[in-house]
Amino acid sequence: MLAQRTLQSLTRAVGVGVHGGQRVELTFRPAPPDSGIVFRRVDLPQPVDIRVGVTAVSDTRMATTISPGGDPGGPKVNTIEHLLSACAGLGIDNLIVDITAEEVPILDGSAAAFVFLLQSAGIELQNAPKRFMRMLKPVEVREGEGATLKWARLEPFEGYKLTFEIEFDHPAVNQTGQRVVFDMGSGQYKREIARARTFGFTKDVEMMRSRGLGLGGSMDNVIVVDDYRVLNSDGLRYDDEFVKHKILDAIGDMHVAGHPLIAAYTAFKSGHALNNKLLRAVLADKSSYEIVSFDDASRAPAGLADLAPAW
C-alpha cells in the first residue's frame, strides 16, 4: 500500500512574518491519518484550528491566507504557501502546525528551511492509504487579454509535472530563465526548487509598506530588484530563480487541494488568486477528477511512491 505520511516527532521554528514583521513561533506535530494539514492558532484565548482546504482560502493578495470556512473576518493564517510546498515535496499528508501569530514566518524566503525542519523530525508512514486527486480532463482558468493575459490549467498526466512561464519585462529578470518544467517524480524538489526565494521590486516597497505589507522583508529573505539589477550581494541561487520560486508557490497553492495531484499543471503569469480559482473550478466539476489510492505502491506513477525520504 502507498501510505499516508506524517512526522515521527515534534520540531519547532522561530522567525518573522514577511508582511506583518512580527515574531512568530511554529511547532510541527504528528497528526493522525486523514486529518490533513491543520494550523492551530495557539495565541488566541481559545485556540482555533484551521484545516487547509480550497474553500478555507479567504485572501490571495500577496500570499495565500486561510480562515475557518473561508471567512475573511475570522481568525486567519497567511503566507502558508512555502510550508505547503515543502509538505508536497516531502509527501507529507497529515500535520498539525501550532502557530503563535497570524503569519507563517518567511525564514530565508524559500521552502528550504521547512524541508530541513520536517526531514529532521523524521517522516513516518501511517496505516492508511495515501489519496491522490487524479485529473480526468483539462480544466483551465483565464484572466485578462493581450498584455494582461494570465492563465493556469490542470490536465491529465500520469505523474505530477509543473510548467510555469513568467513575463516581467524587467532587465534583471529578462537575463534569467523565464520558463521552467519540473517533474515532481524526479525526486529533485529539494535540490531544484526548494531553495528558490521570493522576490520583490524596490519600486513596490513604499506602496506595500503603506498598506502594512512587507514589514518583515529584507535581503536576508527576499531577492530585491531595483530598476536594473538584483541588489543581493550573493546574487541568485539558480539561473532561473525567479520562475522557480513561482513553481515553488504553485506547488504550495496546489497542495491546498488536500490531496497530492496526479496531473500536469501549466501556467502563464499565474499567482495565488488564479491558482485558487483553478482549484475551485476543478472542485466545481466533479467529472474533472477522481480520488484514487494504490494498494500496490508499484502501480503508482513513477516517483510518487518515494518522494524525498527522511534522513
Verbal overview:
This protein has helices spanning 81-90, 112-121, 171-174, 189-192, 202-210, 241-255, 272-284; strands at residues 3-7, 11-16, 23-29, 37-41, 48-51, 57-59, 65-66, 77-78, 95-99, 123-129, 132-135, 139-143, 150-155, 160-165, 179-183, 199-201, 223-225, 261-268, 289-292. With 311 residues, it is of the alpha+beta class. Strands 11, 12, 13, 14, 15, 18 and 19 form a seven-stranded mixed sheet that branches. A five-stranded mixed sheet has the order 2-3-9-4-5, with helices on one face. Strands 6-7-8 form a three-stranded antiparallel sheet, with no helix packed on it. Helix 1 (81-90) crosses helix 2, helix 1 (81-90) crosses helix 6 (241-255) and helix 6 (241-255) packs parallel to helix 7 (272-284). The chain is globular. The mean pLDDT is 91.
Can you give keywords for this protein?
311 residues; 5-stranded mixed sheet; 29% strand; globular; alpha+beta
Topology:
Layout: E1 3-7, E2 11-16, E3 23-29, E4 37-41, E5 48-51, E6 57-59, E7 65-66, E8 77-78, H1 81-90, E9 95-99, H2 112-121, E10 123-129, E11 132-135, E12 139-143, E13 150-155, E14 160-165, H3 171-174, E15 179-183, H4 189-192, E16 199-201, H5 202-210, E17 223-225, H6 241-255, E18 261-268, H7 272-284, E19 289-292
Parallel strand pairs: 4-9, 11-18, 14-18, 16-17
Antiparallel strand pairs: 1-10, 2-3, 3-9, 4-5, 6-7, 7-8, 11-19, 12-13, 13-18, 14-15
Helix pairs in contact: 1-2, 1-6, 6-7
